Amino acid sequence: MSLGHFIQSAWQKQSSWLIVLRPLSWLYQAVFNSQKNKQLKNAYRAKVPVMIIGNITVGGSGKTPLIIALVKFLQAQGIKVGVISRGYGGKGNDGKGSGFPLLVTPQSLPSQVGDEPVLIAQSVNVPMAVAPQRKEAIELLLKNHDIELILSDDGLQHYALARDIEWVVLDIQRGLGNQKLLPEGFLREPVQRLNDVTVIEHGTQSKTPYHMHLQVGQVQNLADKNLSFDATQHYQAVVGIGYPQRFFNTLNQLNLNYAEHIFADHHAYQAHDLKDIFAKGDVITTSKDAVKLLELYAGQTEILTKIWIVTVDAILSDDCYQLLSKQLSDLAINSTASNAD
Predict the structure, then answer these.
(1) Would you list the DSSP string of 177-195?
(2) Percent of the chain, pLDDT > 90?
(3) Rounded-to-integer distance, Cα 149 and Cα 340, Å
């Protein structure tokens, strides 16, 4: 077990030994607060409203499916929406971590712009740009597209960017752990931060009207969507996301037999990572991992046909959409769809 997985496991179990990391959490908070104050003083205000979709925890919470669902809703309302992202994991067009900002298209490479931006671009036709400095991404986006609203994929803690709406996704299965800051706990910011944002609970046992859950779609072959999936096989479950257990829970819901192969979040797969795994059978993975595997094995149909993707869709409560419409109306952004209520 890697150090990262060991810490993740300790966070989930709320292990008592984590208290030894408290001095590091104090240091983290001090540094974070200092950087936050500096960023707030010179925060960049975009020419159009900005909506942050983020979280206060480390690890996946369901932000990417939520953004895709929101983009589809906004486009159906006739609202000109664009998306920005840091492009985590992308190395830019020079392959050295610079060469930003970049526009993202369905043909973009995860190695250049990051896995989540490519997944969003392939899932929905939306103007999108990435850059570590969100200001640069926004200015490139506005230069090339007519935009009324910008959705920021993550960036809740990027206080250098002024924002008009903040939605935080909270996975109610994981909760807030021991409610401690990194590294004693898995919080990026104190729990009190949730008092200042709209909290969207992710799970089927939500106690608020603002909630979402992920609905499993079809299991598709990476090379040929017309291939039939055999649920009786034993699969090699390959996953490199922030909270791998969510994916395994999905496989359990599908009653699949599988072996677990966990990689770090945003892992840049190499052929040697998977050579022995492929020798054991077909691979089943997430949409986020699949975009990287498609780049890695581009043109190698024999391998791509051994990879299966479990697709998911974010299903939001009606109250979420009603709240969003109200928040946008307050910003003078209104639906222009002919069928709008």
Answers:
(1) TT--BTTTSSBSS-GGGGG
(2) 90
(3) 18
Q: Minimal CA–CA distance to 100: which of 150, 154, 137?
A: 137
**Nearest CA-CA partner of 39 in 154, 167, 134:** 134
- Three state DSSP letters for 110-139: HHHHCHHHHHHHHHCCCCEEECCCHHHHHH
Structure confidence at residue 12 (pLDDT): 84
- Element counts in the chain: helices (H) and strands (E): 11, 12
| pLDDT of 341 | 45
Q: How far apart are CA 298 and CA 318, in angstroms?
A: 40
**Predicted TM-score of the model (pTM):** 0.95
Q: Distance between CA 143 and CA 145 in Å, rounded?
A: 6
Six token digits for residue 52? 């942050």
**pLDDT tens digits, one per residue of 43-68:** 999 999 999 999 999 987 899 999 99
Q: Where are the alpha helices (DSSP H) in the chain?
A: 3-13, 22-41, 63-76, 110-113, 115-123, 134-144, 244-253, 271-278, 287-296, 301-304, 318-330
At 6 the pLDDT is 84
